[in-house]
């Protein structure tokens, strides 16, 4: 985790202390917009979700256009060809941390990456992961929002 003051730190577990006002706001939101059964199911560990959830999700995915995701099934990515943007990619601040970022993502379930706008977080990190999965023959699927 890179802090705003430039220092870096790594923690196995991070806590988040909420103020009384924030807790009240969260409670109000949950009362106004209660968690649905689907959302509850999605929050369960994979082993507790059961086959019903998997079948429902697969059916929903099959009815959507999925581009190259092949209905969300992890695949080994194809090799990325050379591009006119390669030199630009290499100039982005995130590029020099590529190996470190990929290693940290592999080792942790949740990774928070903070950086300036335009540093390459959104566009380059998924590409780093695709390149690494191609290089190592590892199937993957990446969703960006």
TrEMBL record:
GO molecular function: helicase activity; RNA binding
Coiled coil stretches, renumbered: none
InterPro entries noted in UniProt: P-loop_NTPase
Name listed for the protein in its UniProt record: YTH domain containing 2
Species the sequence originates in: Mustela putorius furo
Lineage: Eukaryota, Metazoa, Chordata, Craniata, Vertebrata
């Amino acid at each position: 985790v890179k802090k705003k003051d430039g220092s870096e730190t790594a923690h196995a577990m991070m806590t988040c202390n909420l103020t009384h006002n924030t807790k009240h706001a969260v409670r109000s939101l949950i009362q106004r917009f209660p968690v649905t059964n689907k959302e509850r199911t999605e929050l369960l560990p994979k082993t507790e979700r059961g086959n019903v959830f998997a079948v429902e999700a697969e059916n929903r995915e099959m009815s959507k256009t999925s581009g190259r995701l092949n209905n969300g099934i992890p695949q080994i990515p194809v090799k990325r060809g050379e591009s006119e943007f390669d030199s630009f990619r290499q100039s982005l601040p995130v590029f020099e941390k590529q190996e470190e970022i990929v290693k940290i993502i592999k080792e942790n379930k949740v990774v928070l990456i903070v950086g300036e706008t335009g540093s390459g977080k959104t566009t380059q990190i998924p590409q780093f992961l695709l390149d690494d999965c191609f290089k190592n023959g590892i199937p993957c699927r990446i969703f960006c929002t």
